[in-house]
Write a structure and sequence with these properties.
It is built from 3 helices and 4 strands; from the N terminus they run H-E-E-E-H-E-H. With 114 residues, the protein is an alpha+beta fold. A 4-stranded mixed sheet has the order 1-2-4-3, sandwiched between helices. The radius of gyration is 13 Å and the shape is globular. Its EC number is 3.1.26.5.
Length: 114
């Protein structure tokens, strides 16, 4: 997974563009934004994580990010992800979610988007 600040800013600003996809799950929301230059990122899956300060202190947010990175690597790699920049937004209730529930939620979001 690759991430750059300017690309993430572009994707986040264009997350509601007509060429992007969105699905709201129980614990996360997933945006798939069309890449500006998809041929440049043929062998790279790009994903950004957004964890709000409302979810908890830094240690809790870092734990959530570690879980989501692992899930994104496992689940997004299994899909045909070329040409999209994925943005994963968390909801407040993510702290109550187990790893299994997060995996199920992300899998459902990916299926609904594709």
């Amino acid at each position: 997974m690759e991430h750059k600040k300017k690309d993430f800013s572009f994707a986040f600003k264009n997350k509601l563009a007509p060429s992007s996809f969105f699905y709201r799950g129980f614990y996360i929301s997933l945006y798939a934004v069309k890449e500006r230059e998809p041929e440049k990122y043929i062998y790279t899956i790009r994903a950004g994580l957004v964890v709000s300060k409302k979810t908890g202190k830094a240690a809790k947010r870092n734990k959530i990010k570690r879980r989501l990175r692992a899930l994104a690597k496992a689940n997004i790699l299994n899909t045909n992800a070329v040409g999209y920049y994925y943005i994963i937004l968390t909801h407040k209730n993510i702290m109550q979610a187990s790893y299994k529930n997060l995996q199920k939620d992300l899998t459902i979001c990916l299926k609904k988007i594709k």
